[in-house]
Design goal:
single chain; alpha+beta; Jelly Rolls; 5-stranded antiparallel beta sheet
Length: 214
């Protein structure tokens, strides 16, 4: 076979194959490389995360209630007009007033006034708002204790009637419980051979808180 005849023959075979493929392509599926098909991957299940709730604390400013404070003690001075008082001399017999009263030890006592001096005299008039109060008296006589003498009476300013009285010989302390309030009073005091005395006015805490001037 000549070369030209061979080419013509090969071309004819190629045309036949192409026509066969076009007419019945399934017959030549073995000659075609399989196309890979992607297998779908299931999406992973999402686990819901717990919801974190953040609570921001709120603060309310609280103004502390101030604690009540006791008022300063006020001083009672001597008057410069003792002769104008209904009674300006001590009674002759001080023994009639008895000894010192017994002070309560189970109560808090609040001091609110005082008289302090070395010499005697008549105090200015004063009024006490508390239904019950105490005269806490201390006499100091270190220079001549054997001669020390202190005497005192508490009187109504209206008529000079004596409410309470006390006498301290040498030196020492005494208590007088008083149950007179909201009326004018004054004190007559005499001293001899003492260095100093102090009379502190005190009342129980419950009376002080209930009746103190506002």
């Amino acid at each position: 076979m000549e070369k030209g005849d061979f080419l013509t023959f090969a071309a004819g075979i190629a045309i036949v194959i192409v026509i066969a493929i076009l007419i019945n392509p399934q017959s030549f599926s073995g000659f075609t490389a399989p196309v890979p098909v992607a297998t779908p991957v299931p999406a992973p299940a999402l686990t819901p995360l717990p919801v974190l709730t953040i609570i921001t604390p709120t603060y309310q400013e609280v103004t502390p209630t101030p604690l009540p404070t006791d008022a300063p003690q006020y001083r009672i001075f001597y008057t410069d007009k003792p002769l104008s008082y209904p009674l300006f001399k001590l009674p002759g017999n001080m023994e009639t007033f008895g000894a010192s009263d017994i002070l309560w030890r189970d109560q808090e006592m609040v001091p609110f006034a005082f008289v302090e001096d070395k010499r005697g005299g008549l105090t200015r008039k004063f009024s006490i708002p508390y239904p019950l109060w105490v005269l806490n008296i201390t006499v100091t006589a270190n220079t001549s204790p054997q001669y020390g003498n202190f005497r005192m009476v508490l009187c109504y300013a209206s008529n000079g009637t004596v409410i309470k009285g006390v006498e301290i010989l040498n030196r020492g302390t005494a208590y007088q419980i008083i149950q007179t309030s909201n009326t004018d009073l004054y004190m007559i005091i005499t001293t001899a051979s003492i260095d100093r005395y102090r009379i502190t006015f005190e009342t129980p805490r419950n009376y002080y808180d209930a009746y103190r001037p506002r």
